[in-house]
Amino acid sequence: MNARRARRCKWLIGAMWLCASGFTHSLATAQGASMTTNSKAVGHTSSRDGLVVVERRWPPLLHVVVQLRTGSLSDPDGQSGRAALCWGALVRAGGARDRAAFAATLEAMGARIDVDVGRQTTQVVVSGLSEHAEPMMALLSDALLRPRFDVDDVDEVRDQLIAGIEDREDDDESRAADALVRYALRGTPAGRPVDGSPHSLAKIDAAACRVLHAAAIGGAAVEIGFAGAVDFATAAALTRRHLAPLRKPRQRPGTASNRVSVAPKRDGRRLLLIDHPGQTAAQITLAIPMPGSQAKGTTERIVADAILAGTFTSRLSHQIRELRGWTYSIGSVLRAGPRHGLWSLSWAPRNSVAAKSLDLVVRHLELAAKDGGTAAEVDFARDFLRGSQRHAIETGADELAARLHALAQGHPDGWVDQFEGRLAGITAFGVAKSMAADYSASDVVVVVVGDAKKLRPSLDALASGFAIELLSADGQPEDTTLAGKPATVTPARPTPPAPAEALEGPAFDESGEQVELPPPATPSAADDSEDRDENGDDDGGTDGGDGDGGEGDGGEGDGGDESDGGDESDGGDESNNGGEAGDSDGESATPASDKDASNDEPPPAPRPKSTAKPAAKAKSAPKPKSAPAVPKNGAKKAP
After folding, report:
1. What is the pLDDT of residues 432-488, one digit of tens each?
2. What is the pLDDT of residues 529-539, one digit of tens each?
3. Dihedrals phi, psi of 502, to nearest 5 degrees
4. How many angstroms separate the CA atoms of 455 and 452, rounded?
5. Could you read off the pLDDT of 182-220 as tens digits, one per residue?
6. 341 CB-side CA count, 13 A
7. pLDDT-derived band of residue 249, with 50, 70 and 90 as boundaries?
8. Cα–Cα distances in Å, from 233 out to 172, 226, 239, 366?
């Protein structure tokens, strides 16, 4: 299970846009955080002319990163996946050592070498004990400057990439994440998959890899980073001895990576339904185009993300997971390149409430754009981000990753250290402006993976209005051309009560009219069976909701283990700020802001249920005989 989670997180990071490149591993981390030290890890950070050194004397490890400003955006037409294939083959051998000798030398030192290919950057990383600094740097130099690109190595990496593609096709979460980026960025080079396809990979050979390598080493800007038991003078000397050809005039501070435009489409509300027959739950991923990290208001967007869905107690987590129990977890990811960004939200509701959950999410985005965030919510998000970021850069390697990423984003030296200062200056007014301008639900891209036959009728009836396109399981999201519908702003509704009141006081129906909840009744075994569809799915809410698969009575669903909320959130590499980001367990207390009446959307009143004793039911909650039953397909039966 842990291996699958690790594989899934790595794919989500790799597939979701410019992960190690123009788009953040963690946007909040890209903004920086104050560096902390302890008695065993005393050190400091130095940066000069593209050489970044994070000195941490304990433990005695060394982590070296060569970051090149080139990635999959440079893949030629028809050869998507070239960067992933060629850089993967590059770290298998080098110089006089073939694959076997190269691996044996690494293993004898207990070291490892890896490569991370993104859309706009590529990182080659070697790590091991600091006492092996010289031989590790020699191996890194052989791989980078004297690659072999043996045919067998290229073929082996190609087979591994294809196996990974096929494996992800069986995982709805991975498929939705991949399709979302390819759908939102269709028509741009970023709309092609980083790992390519079996068809495109078949066209790439060792000769193509040598062409790519010569262009990258000869022309791409490079940053070199050291983290661990090493000082700046030693790191500079190691660089001169082993990587001198990579030391070239550096781009000026504030200069971003490749100039390729990767702006998401903005053409209304679009929904791509990818058919996966037989699924009892849908995987939903929603995205809104965002400004880039060099645009004004970056920190405000980070705070707005934390308020909306970035923490366990955020608005959408509270509404979808806690109040209704519609999903085990819901998490957001805020990515931003230098010029463009993308905010995404993922959750997996059962089929019977998938459309309703999407409508509710869009409704709350509309409310956020209208009302902004409260002062209490902003204060809580600020405290959360300050604490989580200190965890996110706990090790020297973490800090080095944040600093190199900031450089790739075009930020000047020192950007990382100024994060808490920028965070302290955030106001509720600034966050409200960001929610209105950046989190507007006018242009929304949604990918739903699930059983199309079961999901399509309810999706067609969405109150929020989407242009829907059905895609077969083997379809290509980037080839779609569907334009979205104009945003349908839901009419203003009466202010709903706070969650505690909604459980036993007045509630509101679908039209926004206030209704009185009936007295509670004890459900019978027969009634419980009525709330399950033909596949055994619970069509009611968490506590036996309305009979049409509705929203329940507002009771709290357990949603699983609280320490694992926001599971969709990629292990903290992409600043979902909730769930696993920054190792946050999401166990902080619910802030007062989450009880704000203006942020809650209580469910409609449930239908009274029959009890084991008909006479008692008639006294407590009589059921009108004139009310027709409403089957799941929406057609009314005769009374």
Report:
1. 999 999 998 888 999 999 999 999 999 999 888 898 989 887 777 876 766 666 665
2. 433 443 444 44
3. -65, -20
4. 5
5. 888 887 788 888 999 999 999 999 999 999 999 998 888
6. 28
7. low
8. 49, 11, 10, 54
470 forms beta bridges with 273
**Please, are residues 311 and 381 in contact by the beta-carbon 8 Å criterion?**
yes
Q: What is the mean pLDDT of residues 416-421?
A: 89
Helix axes 151-169, 82-90, angle to 10 degrees: 130
Position 441: which residue type? Answer: A
Residue ranges with strand state E in 397-555: 444-450, 467-471, 507-508, 514-515
- Identify the CA nearest to 426 among candidates 590, 266, 303, 556: 303
Cα 120 to Cα 18, 303, 404: the distances in Å are: 6, 26, 13
CA distance 484 to 584: 36
Contact 54, 45 (CB under 8 A): yes
Examine the pLDDT at 256 and tell me if it is beyond 50. no
d(CA 453, CA 351): 10
Distance between CA atoms of residues 550 and 542, nearest Å? 10
C-alpha R_g of the chain = 26
C-alpha 490/C-alpha 494 separation (Å) is 12
Selection from 523, 525, 493 nearest residue 509 by Cα: 493
- pLDDT (0 to 100) of residue 265: 73
Sequence-ordered list of residues with C-beta below 8 angstroms from that of 423, at least 6 positions apart, any chain: 299, 303, 382, 385, 386
Burial of 495 (0-12, 13-18, 19+ CB in 10 A): exposed
CA 482 to chain CA centroid, Å, is 24
Residue 629 to residue 269: CA distance in whole angstroms: 33
| Secondary structure of residue 51 in the 3-state scheme | strand
| Contact criterion met (CB below 8 Å) for 176 and 56 | no
Residue 343 forms beta bridges with which residues? 288, 334
Length of the chain: 639
Q: C-alpha angle 344/349/351, rounded to 5°?
A: 125
Strands 112-117 and 61-68: unpaired
Contact in structure between 593 and 506 (CB atoms under 8 Å)? no
| Amino acid in position 459 | L
